[in-house]
Amino acid sequence: MRPLVAVFACVVVAGCVTSSYKPVSDPLPRLKVSFADAAWDGKTVPAGQQCLRQGGRGGTPPIRVENIPRGVNTLIVEFNDLTFSPLSQDGGHGKIAFRHDGGPVAVLPAVPGETKDLPTGASLEAGHRAGGGFGPGYLPPCSAMGDVYAAEVKAVYKSDKPQENKLFAVGNFTLGKF
User: Fold this and answer.
1) How far apart are CA 174 and CA 38, in angstroms?
2) Structure pTM?
3) Among the four residues 37, 47, 118, 174, which has the most C-beta atoms within 10 Å?
4) Does domain 20-177 fall into CATH 3.40.50.2300?
């Protein structure tokens, strides 16, 4: 009975999302992911990069992604609050997709938080699941309680036909504590 309760809680409370990208191998290759802005150090979320409710105008960090396999046309970044269980996985703070035109390296631009107005080449794969009157799209760090924020980057082939979607590689990194 407990597993059924856990699944029900996941669906009702967290709005769990399952991946629609079929892995091309097991294990998947690892992407090398790093910050493309020195203000982000992976230890502390930079000042001003928190949500509007906490006095910030936060956005995603610019991200450098390396070791991108051939066949990838999209990089998806899923943002999570590892400390707060309902938003700790599957892009609890939002998922941003970036078109990728090939090549083993990409630099993803910063994306503003709490808006659907995204830079050219970026689109909202899924908005945050926080509820509570926050703006749409990516939700910047918002706890002000020492929570740890992280992201997972997925290198995918994204098709108009979901059955053709493929997952080629993944990479994780820590944004920092807020």
Assistant:
1) 14
2) 0.88
3) 118
4) no
